[in-house]
Specification:
The chain is mostly helical. Helices cover 85% and strands 0% of the residues.
């Protein structure tokens, strides 16, 4: 069971790193790059959704950042 948890943790780390790479590439190259446009578009939608939900969005953001912060990222 610990091996499975380890694999899931490693896959999550890779996914978060890919999102960060997509955002950084979007800043450098713009949204014309195929993978980058989707990442930035989804991130902007997430930020808009959190902003529209006010306090609930802030609570969800705090929970998500706490989850990723506990992983040592």
């Amino acid at each position: 069971m610990n091996k499975i948890k380890g694999w899931i943790g490693e896959l999550t780390d890779i996914a978060v790193a890919l999102v960060a790479l997509g955002v950084a590439a979007g800043v450098v190259f713009g949204m014309d790059v195929p993978f980058v446009g989707a990442v930035l578009g989804n991130l902007i939608d997430l930020i808009n959704t959190l902003g529209d939900n006010g306090v609930v969005g802030i609570i969800v953001l705090a929970i998500l950042s706490g989850m990723y912060g506990s992983r040592g990222m």
